[in-house]
Amino acid sequence: MTNMRPNRVKRKLADGGVATIIQGELSADLIDFLGPLGFDGVWIEAEHGGLSFTDIRDQTRAADLWGMTSVARVHANEEGLIYRTLDQGVQAILMPHCNTAEEAAAVVNAAKFFPEGNRGVFKGRQANGVDDYFEKSNEEVLVGVLIEDVIAIDNLDEMLRVDNVDVYLVAVGDLAQSMGIPTQLTNPELLKVRDESFAKIVSAGKVPGAVTESGNVKEFINKGVRFITNSPNRWLEQGAKSYLEAVSQSVK
């Protein structure tokens, strides 16, 4: 019997650590390239991206090569969509715009087999060679919800009481829009709501998540955030500017 591939992000969080997830519209080849850099997980963008289920399957294979957790953000809280995404080999589901305890519970119900949920009984790619797949899948699958709307902030206490939700990622971009202050990501009221949410999540014994940069990651970790994401687009932009500046200086 083959052991099921471990969920590196889930285990790191369970041990009290900080899990790093590389975020963006990443091809399977790019995931393979990023693999040896040391990130715990890779973000599969199935909310805004143009991915097919075949694309997702290939992306999860690339993540598996390096022991990285494949974390898929799907586009809708639909039972079939959630478990079909997991069937492609994904190890973690992130649900955007999750606003109530009932909606959070629905994500868990679709992502977990009995007795934790009612996921459709099917052995996807991660089941290959694993005799006790249904039991092990419940142990390894990570469930996360995105707190992106004012209504979710209002309902956060109830949402935090939902069993088997591992991560609550506070997404300030959409949250700012919901608060009527779009793009104002440094607005004091937005930051107050964000930090109060982090504190509630930590107090409930759950894991807060956030999108970070090198310049603010220490601040977020000090606030208790342990599921942290970062986009390679920023590094590409910074590297490109640095290179072109070096070229410009060399030809003067």
Keywords:
single chain, 252 residues, alpha/beta, TIM Barrel, eight-stranded parallel beta barrel
Walkthrough of the structure:
44% of the residues lie in helices and 15% in strands. The longest helix is centred in the C-terminal third of the chain and has 19 residues, at 232-250. The model has no long low-confidence stretch (mean pLDDT 96). The chain has a single domain (8-250), classed as Alpha-Beta Barrel (TIM Barrel). It contains 12 helices and 8 strands. It has 252 residues and is of the alpha/beta class. Helix 3 (53-65) links the parallel strand 2 (41-45) and strand 3 (69-73). The protein has an 8-stranded parallel β-barrel with strand order 1-2-3-4-5-6-7-8, surrounded by 5 helices. The chain starts with 7 loop residues before the first helix and ends with a helix.
Low-pLDDT residue spans = none
The CATH superfamily is known as Phosphoenolpyruvate-binding domains
User: What is the string of SSEs from the N terminus onward?
Assistant: HEHEHEHEHHEHHEHHEHEH
Provide the gyration radius in Å: 19 Å
* Terminal-residue CA separation: 65 Å
Q: Trace the largest sheet across and list its strands.
A: 1-2-3-4-5-6-7-8
Q: Architecture, CATH level 2? A: Alpha-Beta Barrel
Helical content class:
40-55%
Total of domains: 1
Largest sheet geometry:
8 strands, parallel, barrel
Overall 3D form: globular
Number of continuous helical runs: 12
Number of strands: 8
- Any idea of the CATH class? Alpha Beta
CATH topology: TIM Barrel
Work out the strand percent.
5-15%
Average the pLDDT over all residues and give the rounded result: 96
User: Which structural class do the helices and strands define?
Assistant: alpha/beta
